[in-house]
TrEMBL record:
Domain of life: Eukaryota
Record protein name field: Uncharacterized protein
InterPro entries, sorted: Sec-1-like_dom1, Sec1-like, Sec1-like_dom2, Sec1-like_sf
Gene3D superfamilies for this protein: 3.40.50.1910, 3.40.50.2060
SUPFAM superfamilies per record: Sec1/munc18-like (SM) proteins (SSF56815)
Single biological process term from Gene Ontology: vesicle-mediated transport
Organism of this sequence: Vanilla planifolia (Vanilla)
Family from the record: Belongs to the STXBP/unc-18/SEC1 family.
Length: 336
């Protein structure tokens, strides 16, 4: 099982962000009283292994299983599914329940969607005639720390969904993740966007702020000064992270840039030139900060597609890279 990373030296308080997500999961488990079987979507296994220890799950009466098409073998009378809102997974769950019903087994079933439930998934349960047997909920895990300089949204299919399927829900997910960061670190005063997807994310972000405003007076000075979103559809140029960061440094004059962080990435990936970014138009929008006009000099960089990469540049110290789609090994939580 993967070791939970140490984020004590992060430029932002990522430990508090992780602890918040951990507490939310524990509260879900506590709401299902007694011993329960936790059936985890295999794609979530790696993420959760970096968030919470298996021993802590077992302390809360959890028996662990990984979701598959095969029926869940457990003597627990309560079964809790933790899954992404994917239609094939809803079919698996429905099949499990119908199998138990056919055997005359009486159990309680709970389905918690990560990060949110969808109408389409609920419709599957209704069509399979198991909706009345289910208690549905959400586990809003939109973003999580992987290291002191890396965060992930686990949106590895965002590029295909947006450009091939025409499904823009991942843009809402990214906006929700940014809003969650703002709830922890203050409203980001300066927004910069290039590309249609980036502009949509900023629109969604402003809508979220209107629905669930961040109390700027209580937050104090924002810890992130500027948000830059870059949306590109070229899969080759999209991998050219180092060149884009260097171009941003030239255009925006980022000082005290951490070359060491970038050079570590260069050894693993080939890079192209960065002249494609020179002269690019960046659409900006300022956001009111009330009396907190002096935001800290820290940048949040998000590259929407095909590699949704976030760059936090703490100008007074060192660089920090955040990858929203970095694949995490599907660690088996049962290995401990």
């Amino acid at each position: 099982m993967a070791q939970i990373p140490n984020v004590d030296n992060s430029p932002l308080n990522l430990a508090a962000l992780r602890e918040s997500s951990q507490k939310e999961l524990i509260n879900i488990l506590k709401n299902v009283r007694g011993k329960k079987c936790l059936v985890i979507d295999p794609k979530l296994g790696g993420s959760l292994s970096l968030l919470i220890q298996t021993s802590l799950l077992k302390e809360n009466g959890v028996e662990l299983r990984h979701l598959s098409a095969e029926p869940v073998q457990t003597e627990c009378s309560k079964v809790l599914y933790l899954v992404r809102p994917q239609l094939n997974l809803m079919k698996f769950i429905s099949s499990h329940i119908l199998n138990d019903v056919s055997k005359g087994l009486q159990k309680e079933y709970f389905v918690y969607f990560v990060p949110r439930r969808t109408v389409v998934c609920e419709k599957i349960f209704e069509d399979e005639k198991v909706r009345h047997l289910l208690t549905l909920g959400e586990y809003p895990l939109y973003i999580m720390p992987l290291d002191e300089d890396v965060l992930s949204c686990e949106l590895d299919t965002a590029f295909r969904e947006c450009l091939v399927d025409g499904d823009m829900s991942s843009l809402w997910h990214v906006a929700k993740a940014i809003h969650k960061l703002e709830l922890s670190f203050g409203v980001i005063p300066n927004l910069r966007a290039k590309g249609c997807g980036s502009a949509k994310i900023i629109d969604i972000l402003n809508s979220l702020e209107a629905e669930d405003p961040v109390n700027a007076a209580d937050m104090g000075i924002p810890e992130i000064n500027t948000l830059i979103l870059i949306d590109r559809e070229d899969a080759v140029i999209g991998s050219n992270t180092k060149a884009i960061l260097e171009s941003t440094q030239q255009v925006f004059g980022i000082s005290h840039f951490s070359e060491g962080k970038i050079s570590e990435v260069v050894e693993r990936q080939p890079w192209l030139g960065y002249d494609h970014f020179e002269g690019a138009t960046i659409h900006g929008k300022g956001r009111g900060l009330g009396g907190n006009a002096e935001a800290k000099e820290q940048w949040l960089w998000i590259d929407i597609s095909p590699n949704v990469i976030v760059m936090v540049e703490q100008l007074v110290t060192c660089g920090m890279m955040i990858d929203f789609t970095m694949p995490i090994a599907e660690e088996n939580l049962l290995s401990e």
